[in-house]
Amino acid sequence: MTIRLSLDNLGKLGKNIAVPTYARASLSAGIVHFGIGNFHRSHQALYLDALFNKGIDLDWALIGAGVMASDEKMREVLVAQDFLTTVVEQEAGNSSARVSGSMIGFVKPGDTAALIAQLADPAIRIVSLTVTEGGYFIDPAKGTFNADHPAMVYDAANPFSPKSTFGLIMAGLWTRRGRGIAPYTVMSCDNIPHNGVVTRNAVVGLAERVDSEFAEWMRKTVAFPNGMVDRITPATSDREREMCAHDFGIEDAWPVFCEDFTQWVLEDKFPSGRPALEKVGVQFVPDVTPYEHMKIRILNGGHAVIAYPAGLMDIHFVHEAMENALVRAFLAKVETDEIIPTVPPVPETDIGAYFKMIERRFSNPKIGDTIRRLCLDGSNRQPKFILPPALERIRAGKSIKGLALESALWCRYCFGTTDSGTEIAANDPIWDRLQPMAIKAKGDAMAWLSMDDIYGDVGTSDVFRREFGNALNSLWAHGTKETLKRYLANTL
Question: How far apart are CA 415 and CA 130, in angstroms?
C-alpha cells in the first residue's frame, strides 16, 4: 500500500520517514528560486528544511519560479503535492527518505506580472537560481556575458515584459528601486566558477542595455555572492518513482534521489539578510575560489573524464564505469597528473583525500546516476570543467595528453555512435552543429578544434592540437579500450 504525498497524509507515512516538524502555516516567503529541479530540491531546499526543523528563520521559505515550458510540469506536480518533495538519500547498504516542506508556492511560468510582483515584495530578500551551466548566456571561449544573444536582445527591448531569468530579476530590481524597496541579494547555485560574478555580469550587462544609470545602481547596491554547491543528484525516472513507492510506501510523482554527501560553501555577502544556514552545515567563507576550483575541476572535470569513454563502451551507470578497470585508471591518471596540480590549496583540506572521496562517491551503486546524464551538454561543460586546466598547463609548458584525450573522446562521442555501432541520441543543445563537425573530424581532426567559440586559445595551441589529433586518430583506428590502454601505458 502506498500513501499519496500531501500535507494531509504526512501523519500516515511510515515511522521511518522523516517529515517536517514545523507547521507549514508558520512559514512565510523570503526567497524566490528560479529553476526548481532535482538538484535544488536535494540541496538548497533541504538545507532550509533542516533549518526550519530547528524552529529557526521560518520567514525564509521558498517560492518557485520558472521561465521554461518544462517548468509548468514541475509546478503541476508540486501543487498537487502541496509543494512537498520526497528526498531519498542513498549510500551503499543504506537508504533513507525524508519529506521536505520548505517550498510554499510556485508562480505559474509565463505569468510575468505575478512574478515581478512577487519579486517586488519587500519580504523577498534573496533571489536564487539553478539554471544549469548553459543558462547564463556566456561566450564559451571568452567566458564573458554575451549581450547579443537573442534572448538578451529581446529582454533589453522589452524590459517590463521579459522572458529570461535575468530579465525577470532585472525587472524585479527596477520595480523595487522605483518603490524605494531595498534590493534583494541574487544568489547563483549553479556549477560555474565565480557563479556570483557571472550572474552579476548577466544581470548588470542586460541592465546596461536598458538604462546605464540603473546598471550603475545595481553595481553599487546589489550583492551577488559566489558559492560552491555539491551533491550528486540524478534525474528522476520511473525507476525512482517505483523505488519510492516500493521501499518507502510514498506515492510521489517526482521524488528526488541523491547521494548522502552534500556541501555548500558561500561568501557571506547578504546585505538584506539571510537565513542562519551555518546552523545546518553551510560554510561561510571570505573567498570561495579555492573551493570552486577543487570541486569544479576534480568532481565535475572527473565526471567528464569518465563520461565519454564509458559512453563509447556502452556503459549505462556511473558506478559501472568505475567498476571498469580502464575507466577508473584513466580517471586516476588524468586527475593525478593534470587536473589536481592546477587546484590551489584549500583551507583545512587534503586534496588527495578529497579525490579519494570523489572516487568513492562516483562508485556508489545506489545512486543510479547515468553516463548519458554526465555526457549531456558538453558544449557548455567542457569550457568550464576541462579547458581551463588545460589552458593553465599549456601556458606552463606542462603535459596535457590526458585532457586532450578527454576532449577527443567527447568529439568521438558526438559522432553519434558508440564503438559497437549503437546510435547515440542527440545529447547537447547544439548537437545539430556538433555532430557534423565530429563527422568531419574523423578525416580532419583539426576541424573539431576550429570551433573557437568553445576552444578559444586552447584550440590554437600547437601542443594541444598535436595531442588531440593523435588521440582522435587512435580512437578511430584502435577504439576506446585500446586507446585507453595505450594512454595508461604511456605509449599513446
Answer: 30
